[in-house]
UniProtKB/TrEMBL annotation:
This is Cell division protein FtsA. InterPro entries: ATPase_NBD, Cell_div_FtsA, FtsA/MreB, SHS2_FtsA. Belongs to the FtsA/MreB family. It is a peripheral membrane protein. It comes from candidate division Kazan bacterium GW2011_GWB1_52_7. Pfam families: FtsA, SHS2_FTSA. Its main location: membrane. Self-interacts. Interacts with FtsZ. Cell division protein that is involved in the assembly of the Z ring. May serve as a membrane anchor for the Z ring. Residues 6-195 form the SHS2 domain. CDD domains: ASKHA_NBD_FtsA. It comes from the Bacteria. One of its GO terms (biological process) is FtsZ-dependent cytokinesis.
Length: 406
């Protein structure tokens, strides 16, 4: 029996996560067979800033995942984000061959190619062309036109582009780490594949991938992608604010955020204190936990207001019944869901990877949404499927548990 293997690598600003998954013939849901995590990434706001650090982090994460899965990693699906990402909706049109009755898959591919004709500057390149709906002889709302009859085929597509220099640097760094990039996938788009249900996409939903340097968002409506964007604020900005507010170093500020941070000061009193000397022997301050929460609250308000403005720009502010789904390391801050509800005026919840096998509790975490989504993206990518001999899932799951018990 053969199995389909896929590898996703999420290169964030603070951590690299590699996930290897497989799906056996006849199975619906894939299993995780290898996981690798390395702190540090040589990235800042989605852009490579330290090639040596990035190469080491990617290579180390992949090596750990390979060792666990007992399989060599070749082509991988890599996350991409950053302020250089932009998107637009564009239409493509072709005339169908007369005398032929049915629309074919080749026709669909041709019309999608015409949607790529959107004007792209010389220093940018297309990352995604995703069909939103097809139109046959003026009839709109068609999901799959194959087998239908008509004279004219149109597609309404979502086109995502990125800056060529940044994309080339990311590809070169991955190759230096010993892996070939099968495809780059916009981070929130990958995460949406792991956590969003078909029903939420039909109703209307926005996914927010809160990373260290940026926050990616993707909007779905009627089952199709509606909009995507990257906002230049992430959880590292909160850390910087705490460092400035308390006049402490960034490493200590990160610990304060993780161990004592809250998205709102409403439940805290002035008597709630943080003794910094217990965290750093060079510090003598005793600071107000409420003050720290006020710092966090201000930055989150800015982030969610920018999300709200982005939704308003595309006419979907307050118009998404399934609300907001939050993923990424920054989504784990206590009280952030209530903050999102208040500022966005939408229902909100954390997003957890769904419909996977071979999982352990430690992987059931919003920060793994993108890496798992990348793996799922690869499994569903018809053009890059890879098959390998059957592997021993029981022993692999045991090794996954072992990596988190150390």
């Amino acid at each position: 029996m053969k199995e389909k293997i896929s590898v996703g690598i999420d290169i964030g600003d603070s951590q690299v996560v590699a996930v290897i998954g497989h799906r056996a013939e006849g199975e619906t849901h894939p299993s995780i067979v290898g996981v690798g995590l390395r702190d540090g990434s040589g990235m800042r706001r989605g852009v490579i800033t330290d090639v040596e650090e990035a190469t080491a982090a990617i290579g180390g994460a992949v090596e750990d995942a390979e060792r666990m899965a007992g399989l060599p990693v070749e082509a991988v699906y890599v996350s991409i984000s950053g302020e250089h990402i932009s998107s637009t909706n564009n239409k493509g049109l072709i005339a169908l061959t007369r005398g032929r009755e049915d629309i074919t898959q080749d026709d669909v591919m041709r019309v999608i190619e015409t949607a790529q004709s959107v004007t792209v500057p010389a220093n940018r390149e297309i990352l995604h062309v995703i069909s939103r709906m097809f139109i046959v002889d003026g009839q709109e709302g068609i999901k799959d036109p194959v087998g239908m009859s008509g004279n004219r085929l149109e597609v309404d597509a979502h086109v995502v582009t990125g800056a060529s220099p940044f994309i080339k640097n990311l590809r070169r760094t991955a190759e230096q780490a010993g892996v070939a990039v099968a495809s780059f996938v916009l981070s929130p788009l990958a995460a949406s594949k792991a956590v969003l249900s078909k029903k939420s996409k039909e109703l209307g939903v926005v996914l927010l991938d809160i990373g260290a340097g940026t926050t990616g968002l993707v909007v779905f409506e009627e089952g199709d992608i509606y909009h995507s964007a990257v906002i230049p604020i992430g959880s590292a900005h909160i850390t910087s604010d705490i460092a400035l507010g308390l006049r402490i170093g960034l490493d200590l500020a990160e610990r304060v955020k993780v161990e004592y941070g809250m998205a709102s000061p409403i439940t805290l009193s002035d008597n709630d204190k943080i003794d910094l000397s217990r965290m750093d022997r060079d510090e003598e301050q005793v600071v107000s936990r409420r003050y720290v929460a006020e710092i966090i609250e201000a930055r989150l308000a800015e982030l969610f207001n920018m999300v709200k403005l982005e939704l308003r720009r595309v006419g979907r502010d307050g118009m998404l019944p399934a609300g907001a789904v939050l993923v990424g390391g920054g989504a784990k801050l206590p009280g952030i869901i209530e903050s999102a509800k208040e500022h966005l005026g939408l229902p909100a919840q954390l997003g957890f990877p769904v419909e996977l096998k071979g999982m352990v509790d430690k992987l059931d975490d919003p920060r793994f949404a993108t890496s798992i989504g990348l793996m799922l993206w690869g499994i569903d990518d018809e053009e890059t499927r890879m098959t390998f001999p059957t592997v021993d899932i029981t022993s692999i799951v045991a090794r996954i548990k072992g990596i988190f018990s150390k």
